[in-house]
Design goal:
This protein is an alpha/beta fold and 455 residues long. Helices cover 32% and strands 16% of the residues.
């Protein structure tokens, strides 16, 4: 009796080596400008060509500016990395979604929305949040630069098979809570090491009721509990999302693929190495108070007495303090976690008819040109503008301090991204992770508030 993970993994094993490690075949390899230059340099030094360029897709995202994208990046290192990506893709015949073109965006947003990410695949990228693609029933995980070179050269990777954990979430999600709150709740209970050694399969009625965009948020942050990746079994929601996408199969090929994907699931009684169940009724809008994603509490809660002292000192908080009412300076909505159209819609629904707080600097960043286009067509951009917000251009933006969108030292930012480590958004920046609804409440009030007050 095999789990879904076991079935996909085993189907891609080329060879099992003495000691148990697997040579794993990779169906889709995504690359970007930060972790690929050294890999291509390694290929050149060894005189090796990219083995299967048709299975590699590139997009620049980490270093690019989110305004005035027709101009070169201002940072010299960023410019060089972006130039190197374009040069290497041209040299090796790799498809690249260039800045400003209709398919450009964050690598973990463009892959799914273009139809390149499909159920049953093995997918890698030199980026830790490759687990996002697991929402489609894929075995998807991040790899290091030397492994990027390995996959470019051979379309295979050497990996040890992890254990499999099933995380069930059952019941109806309360009003005001979203998928980001689900995953923050789970991480807060299991801890940042709770998934170490495992690939996580998310299941249960709550998960099945989620949209594909919400599922991607869940799988995106599975690694923040130490897991190798996360996945969700494909279903009719998955197929409805993929049908008609630019690179999805069509006609007879679609019917055949859909039949395969409908059958892609674990065996009844499949053996999991660990299993835990959560009740959706107990999940509230969440926010972090510390310096790792496990420090999440309900937005109306108080900082626990056993909170890590160093984290509180960095954040300028104290145990026993309520989060409600804490002043904030910045709001960032975007990233591969919450930069999709559904997230922008949710944020806009709360701020509609209200005004941005004058004390807040807000960066609302779509995850791709497609998200930007649809946000404009649907009037989301107009709603944001009427409330005093600007819709910027696609990119990783303030998720990490690799571009111009940095949070100043000592300032507080409510961010819909995935990590709140010290300096993650800039030296001395103080990050509070939350979903788009909590971010919206903070943006219009200038402080932490429960979004259910405004819904």
């Amino acid at each position: 009796m095999n789990t879904l993970f076991d079935k996909i993994w085993d189907a891609h094993v080329v060879e099992t080596l003495p000691g148990g490690a697997s040579v794993l075949y990779i169906d889709r390899h995504y690359i970007h400008e930060v972790t690929s230059p050294q890999a291509f340099e390694g290929l050149q030094q060894r005189g090796v060509e990219v083995f299967r360029p048709g299975q590699v897709t590139a997009t620049p995202d980490h270093n690019i500016p989110t305004t005035r994208q027709h101009l070169p990046a201002s940072d010299p290192l960023s410019r060089e990395q972006l130039t190197a990506l374009a040069r290497n893709c041209a040299r090796h015949g790799i498809s690249i979604f260039k800045v400003g073109t209709p398919r450009h965006g964050i690598v973990h947003v463009t892959g799914p929305e273009s139809g390149l990410t499909r159920p049953g695949m093995t997918i890698v990228c030199g980026d830790s949040h490759t687990s996002t693609h697991g929402a489609f029933g894929c075995v998807a995980f991040g790899i290091g630069t030397s492994e990027v070179e390995m996959v470019l050269a051979s379309q295979c990777i050497l990996q040890s098979k992890p254990g499999v954990m099933r995380v069930r979430v059952e019941g109806e999600l309360p009003a005001g809570a979203c998928s980001k709150d689900i995953i923050l709740h789970v991480i807060s209970r299991l801890g940042t090491g709770g998934g170490t050694g495992y690939f996580i399969e998310f299941a249960g009625s709550t998960i099945r009721a989620l949209s594909m965009e919400a599922r991607m948020t869940i799988c995106n942050m599975s690694i923040e509990m130490g897991a190798r990746g996360g996945m969700i079994a494909p279903d009719e929601t998955t197929l409805a999302y993929l049908e008609g996408r630019p690179f999805a199969p069509r006609g007879v090929e679609w019917e055949r693929a859909a039949e395969r994907w409908r059958a892609l699931r674990g065996d009844p009684g499949g053996r999991f190495d660990a299993e835990v169940t959560f009740r959706a009724a107990g999940i509230e809008p969440m926010i972090t108070y510390g310096t790792n994603p496990g420090t999440a509490i309900p937005v109306g809660g108080v900082i626990p007495p056993d909170a890590e002292r160093r984290a509180l000192e960095y954040m300028g908080f104290h145990a026993g303090e309520p989060m409600i009412g804490k002043k904030i300076d910045h709001v960032f909505v975007g990233s591969c976690t919450n930069g999709r159209l559904e997230d922008l819609r949710a944020f806009a629904a709360v701020v509609k008819g209200r005004r941005k707080s004058p004390r807040v600097t807000a960066w609302i960043v779509p995850g791709s040109k497609e998200v930007e286009r649809r946000a404009i067509e649907e009037g989301v951009r107009d709603t944001l503008a009427a409330a005093g917000f600007e819709l910027r251009q696609p990119g990783c933006s303030a998720c990490l301090a690799m571009n111009e969108d940095k949070i100043p030292p000592g300032k507080y930012c409510v961010a819909t991204s995935n990590r709140n480590f010290e300096g993650r958004q800039g030296p001395g920046a103080r990050t509070l992770l939350a979903g788009p609804l909590v971010a919206a409440a903070a943006a219009i009030t200038g402080e932490i508030r429960d979004p259910r007050e405004f819904m």
